[in-house]
Specification:
By secondary structure, this protein is α/β, with parallel strands linked by helices. It is built from 15 helices and 9 strands.
C-alpha cells in the first residue's frame, strides 16, 4: 500500500516538473537532408530514382530520372533517410571520425547561467549572477575553447566550450594527478548544472572538463530560448547534433592528452549519457564511463518521454510511428553500438556505471533495463545503481545527493583501481 502511494506521489511530482516550462515549441517535421550533404547526394538520389522507376513501371509517368519533385512524397524522403542511417551504421568510424582542431585555447571569463526557461525564480537567479559579474565580485573561471570539427550554420554553436576544473597537485608529492573526466549534463541544462560534481571530482584528484553540449548555454543561437536544435523534429539536424557532441568529446580527450593526462573518463546525464556512450564506443581511451539515466533507442525516448511530447506531436501529425522513428534515428541509438562498446571496453578493462530511476517518465524504466540486459548478454562488466525517484526529481533534494554519491564514489573507485 505504501509503495503504491509513494509511486503515485512520485509520478505527480515528476509530472509537475516536466510540465512547468511554458516555452516548449511544437515545430514542423523536417527531414533535414541539408544537414547530411555527404550522404544526401548518393542516398536521396537513389531513393528518388527508385520511386521514379516504380512510378513509370506502373504506367503513372514518363519514367524521368531527373525530377527533383519526386523527393516531395514522404515515403521517398523516409526511404532516403533510412538509407542514410544504414550507411552511417555501416561505417560509423567515418561519421564519428574527425580532423583534430588546431585552435585549442583557455580563456578566462565570468561564468553565466544561460537559463533555458522563463520561470521568475530562474530569471531572478540569472539577473543576480549578471549583477555580481558587473560588480566584479564573481570570480572568473577558465574555459577551454576550440572550433568543432563539425560545422553548422551557427558560428556560436561551432565554438566548443568546456569549463575547466584542474585538480590541485598532490599535497605530499606535489605532482599533478594525470586523471581527467569529461562531464556532459542533461538536455536543456543551464551552464551551472553539474559544476558541483566537477568540484567533487577535484577532491579525488580527478580533473574535469564540464562540456557544453551542442546548442547549449553559450553555444545556443540567439534565436532560441531552449536548446531545441539538439533534439527536435528536424531529423537530420538531430543526427548531426549527436555527431558533433561525440566528436567534441573526443577532441577534449585529445587536448587532455596533450596536457599530459593519461587516464580518461566520461560522465553523461540523460541526453549526455547517449553522447557519452557513443563516444566511448568509438574511443577506447575512455576507460571510466558513467551513464546517469540510460536508454537503448533514441526514438523510444523521444516518443515515450514526458519532456519530449512536443517533438512527438510533430511526428504524429505526419503519421510517423514510434517504430519508424526508431529507424530514422537508428544511427544515434546506443542499441546498435553495444558490440562496439564491448570491443573498446575490453581493450582498456573499462569500468562502467549505469544509473536509472524507478519512476522515470522521461527515460522510462523498461528502456534502462534493456541496457543492462544487453550488457549482460554481451558479457560487458558494469555496476548498476537505482534511484527511488524519477528523471527530473533526480535533481531535487534528497535524490540529488544520492545520485551524487553513486556517481562520485564510482568515479573515485574506478580511477583508483
Amino acid at each position: 500500500m505504501l509503495e503504491k502511494l509513494y509511486a503515485q506521489w512520485m509520478y505527480r511530482w515528476e509530472t509537475e516538473l516536466t510540465t512547468r516550462d511554458s516555452n516548449r515549441i511544437v515545430r514542423p517535421l523536417e527531414w533535414g537532408f541539408d544537414w547530411l550533404r555527404e550522404y544526401t547526394d548518393a542516398h536521396v538520389a537513389a531513393a528518388a530514382l527508385a520511386e521514379a522507376e516504380s512510378f513509370a513501371t506502373a504506367g503513372g509517368g514518363t519514367g524521368s530520372r531527373s525530377s527533383t519533385a519526386l523527393l516531395t512524397p514522404p515515403d521517398v524522403s523516409e526511404d532516403a533517410m533510412l538509407a542514410i542511417n544504414e550507411a552511417i551504421l555501416a561505417d560509423s568510424d567515418r561519421f564519428f571520425g574527425y580532423t583534430p582542431p588546431a585552435d585549442y585555447r583557455l580563456e578566462q571569463r565570468h561564468p553565466a547561467l544561460f537559463p533555458t526557461n522563463v520561470r521568475p525564480e530562474t530569471l531572478a537567479q540569472d539577473a543576480e549572477i549578471r549583477a555580481k559579474a558587473e560588480r566584479g565580485v564573481l570570480p572568473k573561471a577558465a574555459f577551454l575553447r576550440f572550433t568543432s570539427p563539425v560545422r553548422t550554420p551557427y558560428p556560436e554553436n561551432d565554438l566548443v566550450n568546456a569549463r575547466w576544473y584542474p585538480a590541485p597537485p598532490d599535497k605530499q608529492s606535489g605532482v599533478q594527478p594525470r586523471k581527467a573526466i569529461i562531464v556532459m549534463p542533461q538536455w536543456n541544462a543551464d551552464a551551472f548544472s553539474h559544476n558541483a560534481l566537477c568540484t567533487l571530482f577535484n577532491r579525488f584528484g580527478v580533473s574535469a572538463l564540464r562540456l557544453s553540449k551542442p546548442y547549449h548555454d553559450i553555444r545556443r543561437p540567439a534565436e532560441l530560448e531552449r536548446s531545441d536544435y539538439a533534439v527536435s523534429s528536424n531529423i537530420g539536424r538531430t543526427l548531426v547534433a549527436c555527431q558533433q557532441a561525440v566528436i567534441d568529446i573526443r577532441c577534449c580527450v585529445d587536448w587532455l592528452a596533450a596536457q599530459g593526462y593519461e587516464r580518461f573518463g566520461v560522465l553523461g546525464t540523460s541526453l549526455g549519457s547517449c553522447y557519452a556512450f557513443l563516444a566511448a564506443a568509438h574511443d577506447e581511451r575512455l576507460e571510466v564511463c558513467a551513464f546517469n539515466h540510460a536508454s537503448t533507442s533514441f526514438g523510444d525516448v523521444v516518443w515515450t518521454g514526458q519532456s519530449t511530447r512536443h517533438i512527438r506531436a510533430a511526428f504524429e501529425q505526419q503519421g510517423i510511428t514510434q517504430e519508424r522513428l526508431n529507424a530514422l534515428w537508428g544511427a544515434i541509438s546506443p542499441v546498435h553500438y553495444m558490440r562496439r562498446y564491448r570491443a573498446t571496453a575490453a581493450r582498456r578493462d573499462r569500468r562502467t556505471l549505469v544509473v536509472h530511476a524507478t519512476y522515470d517518465l522521461t527515460f522510462i524504466r523498461e528502456f534502462s533495463v534493456e541496457v543492462l540486459r544487453s550488457f549482460d548478454e554481451l558479457g560487458i562488466r558494469y555496476e548498476s545503481k537505482v534511484l527511488p525517484c524519477g528523471h527530473y526529481t533526480t535533481g531535487e533534494t534528497p535524490y540529488k545527493f544520492l545520485d551524487g554519491w553513486y556517481l562520485g564514489s564510482f568515479v573515485y573507485q574506478a580511477f583508483r583501481t
